[in-house]
Amino acid sequence: MSLKDCHNFSDFRKLAKKKLPSPIFHYIDGAADDEITYKRNTTAFDAVDLVPNVLKGVENIDLSTNIFGKKIDLPLYCAPTALQRLFHYDGERAVGKAAQKFNTFFGVSALSTVSVEEISSLIDTPKMFQFYFHKDRGLNDAVMERAKAAKFDVMALTVDTITGGNRERDLRTGFTSPPKLTLSSLFSFAMKPMWGINYLTKGKFELPHLQDYVSEGTSTAVSIGNYFSNMLDQSMNWKDAEKLCSQWGGHFALKGVMSVEDAKRAVDIGCSGIMVSNHGGRQLDGSRSPFDQLAEIVDAVGDKIDVICEGGIQRGTHVLKALSIGAKACSGGRLYLYALAAAGQEGVERALNLYRAEIERGMKLMGCTKISDLNRDNLRFRSK
Q1: Residues with Cβ < 8 Å from 353, sequence gap 6 or more?
Q2: Which tens digit of pLDDT belongs to each residue from 335-351?
Q3: Residue 131 parent element (H or E)
Q4: Angle between helices 316-325 and 334-366 (to 10 degrees)
Q5: Number of separate domains in the chain
Q6: What's the CATH code of the domain at 55?
Q7: Which of 104, 133, 178 is nearest to 353 (CA)?
Q8: Could you tell me the sign of the dihedral formed by the alpha carbons of 86, 89, 93, 95, in that order?
Q9: How far is the C-alpha of 245 from the C-alpha of 337, rounded, in Å?
Q10: Is the pLDDT of residue 229 over 80?
């Protein structure tokens, strides 16, 4: 199987599995507890049917949308995800360059393996920095100032990792950052020699935003669940979020909002937007899917802030359904991470191109020529 054989989300996943050692693949692929929410994030879209209109003159389609004060050409963007250097040696560089080609947002994680300064020098596509609220206030201040100096367009505070989710696949495979060989994982790494060669020869694994303050994750191997539980500040509250919003002074978002009450509070503290997200099912298993929560959140705050639907998206039609509910755009991690692991920048470009083609084709078949044509009249909800 090669990149040219990848035509959808599932194909990229299969190729990524062939390329990555088991602990690395299952870190992307896994979720919390029984992974019920992880699966539900995608199957939720099946409960809604699209109702197309015909004879609408759909020769020219405009897929652009406006979020956080920026016009992007695709209503789908690359959500910030950690540790991308583990999935492909070009890591965030590859994803950022691919996002730029499609003029869409690129999200950079606080746990990224490439610095905000380098990303800013490489690409001029709209950029979002994802912020984790650490116990170390000096670290928090330094990271925010670096993102501000690098002229990132949006600061997104992740609010759903107040403690680490129970990611049992990581416990079974022994996944840590940085990776470490164990008796149980040795065979898996040995079976993927090119990954090991690239990891050892294509530059040192680093977490440039954190390593001057904490050893965990860079020089000291740690699971992501333990990192969240031990390094992040569990006392974080609405006053802290409001202070960060004020300190940033630009477009500010909360990533991981799932309730109407929290969405309204986000408006009150000055947020420009929210990502309706459950962290890809990696935190609270048994929780609702973002798509299932989207309508009530849009109804409550959609006229005041940008509402982004994040999680479970595997098809262009999923994007169309979320936009029809009222989301301004969609985002996701796995939707490009498998492609990154499969073939680096070329893989991410192919994935984004396929999504763009699916969205455009779906728009034409729906009888819509621009994003604002999509609305709930296009949908019918099955009983759940």
Answers
A1: 102
A2: 999 999 999 999 999 99
A3: strand 127-131
A4: 70
A5: 1
A6: 3.20.20.70
A7: 104
A8: negative
A9: 29
A10: yes
Q: Render pLDDT for 82-115 as a digit per residue (tens, 0 to 9).
A: 999 999 999 999 999 999 999 999 999 999 999 9
Q: Is 67 helix (H, G, I), strand (E, B) or coil?
A: strand
**Residue for token pair 């790494």:** 189
Instruction: Give the integer Cα–Cα distance in Å for 140 and 136.
Output: 7
Give the range of the structural domain holding residue 47, as residue numbers without chain letter: 3-381
Lookup: tokens for 269: 């503290």
Taking the C-alpha atoms of residue 242 and residue 72, their distance in angstroms, rounded to an integer, is 27
CB 63 within 8 A of CB 57: no
The length of the chain is: 384
The average confidence (pLDDT) of the chain is 96
256-309 pLDDT, tens per residue?
999 999 999 999 999 999 999 999 999 999 999 999 999 999 999 999 999 999
Strands 70-72 and 65-67: antiparallel
Closest among 170, 177, 179, 127 to 148, alpha carbons compared:
127
Q: Could you list the active site residues? A: 279
